[in-house]
Amino acid sequence: MKRTAFLLAAILINISFANAQESTYAYNNIKVSTVADNDETPSPVTAFKLKVAQLDPEALVFKITVENPGIERVTLSIKDANNYTLHQESLPVTMLYVAKFNMQELQDGAYTFEIRRGRNRLAEKIVNIRTETSINRTVSVQ
Questions:
Q1: CB distance 67 to 94 below 8 Å
Q2: What is the mean pLDDT of each run of 10 residues along the chain (142 residues)?
Q3: According to the model, what pLDDT value does residue 140 have?
Q4: DSSP one-letter string for the chain
Q5: Within 10 A of 91 (CB to CB), how many other CB atoms are there?
Q6: By the number of CB atoms within 10 A of the CB, which of 13, 33, 64, 65 ranks highest?
Q7: What is the CATH number of domain 2-129?
Q8: Domain map of the chain by residue range?
Q9: How far apart are CA 122 and CA 43, in angstroms?
């Protein structure tokens, strides 16, 4: 009972703190949200999860969702194919973290979203960006 009350207080404090700050991260042009969008209801969480979804097939904007049932401090990194860290941030200590990242300016290649707790890698998702060009030839005979 005491632990449940403590967790609830920690969540409420973190949600109010997250709503009060105006954070803009590298490649992240949208404010951090610690609650799910209206179209999603988080399921009961039993294990750490990382989800990466492209919001629009025509744009390189990705929605990142981190479910952290242990409510532990974790770090989100975005790395290129050479393991060079392009972006790194310590996530707010909440059960659910949702953010949108604009990767439109990045070159073609493989990029890894990685979640770590200290030196331990908890999850990773790889996003491959590849530009395809097509040549359309039109012939008309008159």
A1: no
A2: 45 38 40 45 61 90 89 90 94 90 92 92 92 84 86
A3: 79
A4: -HHHHHHHHHHHHHHHHHHH----BTTB-S--BSS--TT--PPPP-S-EEEEEES-TTS-EEEEEEE-TT----EEEEE-TT--EEEEEEPPSSSEEEEEEE-TTSPSEEEEEEEEETTEEEEEEEEEE-------------
A5: 19
A6: 64
A7: 2.60.40.1930
A8: 2-129
A9: 19
Q: Which two tokens stand for residue 35?
A: 């609650």
Per the listing, tokens 């532990």 go with: 72
| Residue whose token pair is 């060009």 | 133
Q: Cα angle at 103 between 54 and 127, to 5 degrees? A: 55
In whole angstroms, give the CA distance from residue 25 to residue 29: 7
Tell me the C-alpha to C-alpha distance, in Å, between residue 98 and each of 18, 36, 50, 91, 134: 11, 7, 10, 10, 35
